Every structure is written in C-alpha cells, then in structure tokens.
C-alpha cells in the first residue's frame, strides 16, 4: 500500500503558475503508475495527467496539454505537477492518485491523497 500527501496548492492569478507535489508518507511511488486528477465544484472528478516510471509514457487531458507537466523523482519519492498559464477553469481540488491506467481511456487507481485546493482568480 501507499499513502499520498499533496502540497503546493493555493490562490494564484490567471496566467500564473503553481507547482503541486505528491509525496508518499508510506510506500514507494515508483511501484505504481502515478496520476493527477481534479474535481471542480459541482463536477465529477476528472483526469489531468498520468505517467509511468519505466516506459516514459505520459498522457495529459486535452484541457491542460501544453500548460501542465507531470514529473517524478525516484530519489525523493515524489511526483509533481507543474501548472503554467493557469485560468479560472483550472480551479479545483487536485488529487494525487497511485495506480491509474497508463493508456486512454485513463481510469483512476486505488490510492488517493487528501487533495489540495487550487484557486485561480480572473
């Protein structure tokens, strides 16, 4: 099993950047495909980005492709999400997820973090 802890959320102006980080308080992230999902108020949780450690495969939702970058650090046992050119539609709670599928359609895995709020002001 793995326990996930997100950090790095906050309030940012439109056009700004934030970097989210997912750390494992227990377990090893490199044993799992890793992903980020988000949930905006009144909406279902949706896929944002997913990566694997061995094959170098990475997929992004169309809405974030070219603006967001997912990356993993094996030594630090963390997975980050760099978010640039943020807009109001990116406002959501962002969740780290261990074990998602790596090919579309992306389905979430078993383990979730508690989430971190990202709010983009327009």
What does this 3D model show about the protein?
Helices cover 0% and strands 49% of the residues. The chain contains no helices and eleven strands. The strands form two sheets. Strands 2, 4, 5, 6, 9, 10 and 11 form a seven-stranded mixed β-sheet that branches. It is globular and about 40 Å long. The protein starts with a strand and ends with a strand. The mean pLDDT is 96.
Strand-helix topology:
Blueprint: E1 3-7, E2 10-13, E3 18-26, E4 34-39, E5 46-51, E6 58-60, E7 68-73, E8 78-83, E9 92-98, E10 111-112, E11 116-121
Parallel strand pairs: 2-11
Antiparallel strand pairs: 1-3, 3-8, 4-5, 4-9, 5-6, 7-8, 9-10, 9-11
Total of DSSP H or I helical runs spanning 4+ residues: 0
Order of helices and strands: EEEEEEEEEEE
Which secondary-structure class do the elements indicate?
Answer: mainly beta
Beta-strand level of the residues, as a percent range? over 45%
Helix content: under 10%
Shape: globular
Rounded to an integer in angstroms, the radius of gyration calculated over CA atoms is 13 Å
Low-confidence stretches: none
Counted beta strands = 11
Mean pLDDT: 96
Largest sheet: 7 strands, mixed
Calculate the terminal CA-CA distance, rounded to whole Å. Answer: 40 Å
């Amino acid at each position: 099993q793995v326990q996930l802890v997100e950090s790095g959320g906050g309030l940012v102006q439109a056009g700004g950047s934030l970097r989210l980080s997912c750390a494992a308080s227990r377990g090893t992230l490199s044993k799992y495909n890793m992903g980020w999902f988000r949930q905006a108020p009144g909406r279902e949780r949706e896929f944002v980005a997913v990566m694997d450690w061995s094959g170098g495969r990475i997929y992004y939702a169309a809405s974030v492709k070219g603006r967001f970058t997912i990356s993993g650090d094996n030594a630090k046992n963390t997975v980050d999400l760099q978010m640039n050119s943020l807009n109001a539609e990116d406002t959501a709670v962002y969740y780290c997820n261990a074990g998602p599928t790596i090919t579309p359609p992306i389905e979430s895995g078993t383990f979730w973090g508690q989430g971190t709020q990202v709010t983009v002001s327009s």
